[in-house]
Amino acid sequence: MKIICGLILFSTFAIIFVSGLNCWTCNVLGGNNVCRRSGGLRTCFNNQVCYNEVRRRGNTINIRKGCKNSGVCENHIMQSMSTPNPNNQCVNGPNYFCSCCCGNSVCNSNWLTCVTAGSVAPTVSTTVPPADEGLKRSDIINIQDSWNTLKGFGYETVGMLVLHRLFNDAPQTRYLFSQLSLSSNESFTLEQMRNNSRVVYHANRVARAVGRLVDLIELPTNFTDHLVWLGQRHAYHGVAPVNFDYMGPVLLETIKVNLELPSDSPTLSAWAKAYGVIKNGIKDAIIATYAEG
Ligand SMILES: *[C@@H]1O[C@H](CO)[C@@H](O)[C@H](O)[C@H]1NC(C)=O
Ligand SMILES: *[C@@H]1O[C@H](CO)[C@@H](O)[C@H](O)[C@H]1NC(C)=O
Ligand SMILES: *[C@@H]1O[C@H](CO)[C@@H](O)[C@H](O)[C@H]1NC(C)=O
Questions:
Q1: Per the confidence metrics, is the pTM higher than 0.70?
Q2: Does residue 219 have its Cβ closer than 6 Å to ligand 3?
Q3: Are 25 and 41 a contacting pair, CB within 8 Å?
Q4: Is 127:175 a contact under the CB 8 Å cutoff?
Q5: Measured from the CB, is residue 222 less than 6 Å from ligand 3?
Q6: Which of 42, 94, 92, 93 lies closest to 64 in space, CA to CA?
Q7: Which residues line ligand 2 (CB under 6 A)?
Q8: Across all residues in the chain, what is the average pLDDT?
Q9: Which helix (H) or strand (E) holds 270?
């Protein structure tokens, strides 16, 4: 009798363990939103984990998500952490390819990076903090003055300094710029970056995006609207909110080094506060965009 009970219990557990993870599944040409709209959840076999794959050929992006045998994924990188893993298997260049695997249910659904289910639970905040939260009048003046000085170098130069630092200090962000055809492991000199016209173009855009926010810093409604717009654009490209954590230190360091500011400069602390607001606004907008599907 005891043995039978034991068997029944065991088989009940076995059934629980047999059912696999749920993974988002799609195979589409287009962005992450296309995948989210047209794909669906699938229950994997119990030896499988979720995966994401992004392939670019010319101007076409192919996104595939689904279940994959965990053995295959171990050969790639088993990624179940909340930050983008530098070891994402990525091959840059004209035949860009990037893939990652993760071992929690639905961990591959929202972004193109692999993150745990827990860390993507949308905590949607509909209100973005106002631009002036925590920013004093003196902070705003410090930001505007320092930006005017930086802008004197030219948007392109400022953007290149920011991207140069980002790609070298946080190389795990490179795969987000698949259109720039960056190699995944070398360090770049500014001169090499200047030779890549797409990097130069993007550098300009990054600097103009910062400049636009500085221009709007005294117009809270416009400022907030612009953060929402930036979040939507990044969500469309499958950028996970966590990536904005890398940009803050990079931006601050670029400002500090190029304006030769001491570490305790009030200008830097003003930028740190402002970047906190910017980051939260963009992250909330990314999450809200994904939540809307
Ligand atoms: C980068 O990785 C490629 C392929 O794995 C390798 O051939 C190349 O030598 C690496 N370059 C550097 C600078 O590590
Ligand atoms: C940049 O391009 C120029 C002209 O094609 C070339 O002479 C130079 O070596 C390149 N520099 C780097 C660092 O790739
Ligand atoms: C701020 O937003 C208002 C209303 O949308 C718009 O009319 C105005 O042009 C914006 N100002 C700037 C500087 O973008």
A1: no
A2: yes
A3: yes
A4: no
A5: yes
A6: 42
A7: 191-192, 195
A8: 75
A9: helix 266-292
Buried b (16+ CB within 10 A) or exposed e, 270-290: bbebbbebbbbbbbbbbbbbb
The 10s digit of each residue's pLDDT in 36-58 is 778 888 888 888 888 888 776 66
Q: How many A from CA of 271 to the centre of ligand 3?
A: 23
Whose alpha carbon is nearest atom 6 of ligand 2? Answer: 195
> What is the CATH class of 137-292?
mainly alpha
Confirm if 97 and 91 have CB atoms less than 8 A apart: yes
C-alpha distance from residue 276 to each of 99, 134, 175, 267, 288 (Å): 30, 10, 24, 14, 18
Ligand number nearest to the C-alpha of 188: 2
| Residue that has been written with the tokens 């990314």 in this structure | 286
Q: What is the Å distance from ligand 1's center to 55 Cα?
A: 20
Q: Are 237 and 176 in contact (CB under 8 A)?
A: yes
56-86 burial, b at 16+ Cβ within 10 Å, e below that, comes to: beeeebebbbbbbebeebeebbbbbeeebbe
The sheet that has 97-102: what strands, in order across it?
40-43, 22-29, 60-69, 48-57, 97-102, 89-91
Give the Cα separation of 4 and 25 in Å (integer).
40
Average pLDDT estimate for 265-293 = 86
Confidence at residue 75, expressed as pLDDT on a 0 to 100 scale: 54
- Picking from 139-143, 250-254, 276-280, 289-293, which range would have the lowest pLDDT averaged per residue? 289-293
Q: If you take atom 9 of ligand 3, which residue's CA is the nearest one?
A: 222
Three-class HEC string of 47-96: CEEEEEEEEEECCEEEEEEEEEEHHHHHHCCECCCCCCCCCCEEECCCCC
Please report, for the chain, the start and end positions of each structural domain, with discontinuous segments joined by +. 3-102, 137-292
Collapsed DSSP state (helix, strand, coil) of residue 99: strand
Amino acid at 209: A
User: Which bin fits 178, alpha (ψ -120 to 50), beta or left (φ > 0)?
Assistant: alpha
